[in-house]
Amino acid sequence: MSFIISIEGEHAALASEDEIADGIAAAREVFARNEADPLACQVAVDKLEKDELLNREEALLCLIWDEAEEAAFRAVTLGWLSRAVDIKIAVRAEARIEAEAPALQARH
Fold first, then answer.
1. Nearest 5°: CA angle at 47, between 44 and 48?
2. Phi/psi at 7 (nearest 5 deg)?
3. Mean pLDDT, 10 residues at a time, over the chain (108 residues)?
4. Rg (alpha carbons) of the chain, rounded to whole number
5. Residue 67: predicted pLDDT
6. Are 90 and 42 in contact (CB under 8 A)?
7. Do residues 27 and 69 lie in contact, with contact meaning Cβ atoms separated by under 8 Å?
8. Phi and psi for 85 in degrees, rounded to 5?
9. d(CA 84, CA 89)
């Protein structure tokens, strides 16, 4: 299934297009290296945030999500004077027919 990774958060608008692209590439690399479906990771994280019980596979997907989000955060904020910022990743399924994605998104 095709998906879109985006960089979100209160301070995401401060990042340049190149920084956003670097962050998305870093997150994508983590998902690929772990052979993890980003959408499944997102579902597991959503479940965790609702305090629902996770099975072992879901717990591992949450760890992969955390690693991808950390990699994206570091790539986006590389060279910034402060890292006390709100920047995170989000993943959603790409619709078959969709308007052009906003500039802060990259397609898989």
1. 90
2. -105, 125
3. 91 96 98 97 97 98 98 94 87 68 46
4. 14
5. 98
6. yes
7. yes
8. -130, 160
9. 16
Question: Residue 1: what pLDDT?
Answer: 65
On the 0-12 / 13-18 / 19+ scale of CB atoms within 10 A, 106 is middle
The model's pTM: 0.82
Instruction: Please give the structure tokens belonging to residue 18.
Output: 């190149």
In whole angstroms, give the CA distance from residue 39 to residue 65.
Answer: 10
Residue 10, both tokens: 């209160």
> Taking the C-alpha atoms of 44, 48, 53 and 59 in order, what is their torsion angle to the nearest 10 degrees?
50
Q: Which residue carries 């920084």 as its tokens?
A: 19
CA-to-CA distance for 104 and 37, rounded, in angstroms?
20
Helix (H) or strand (E) holding 70: helix 56-77
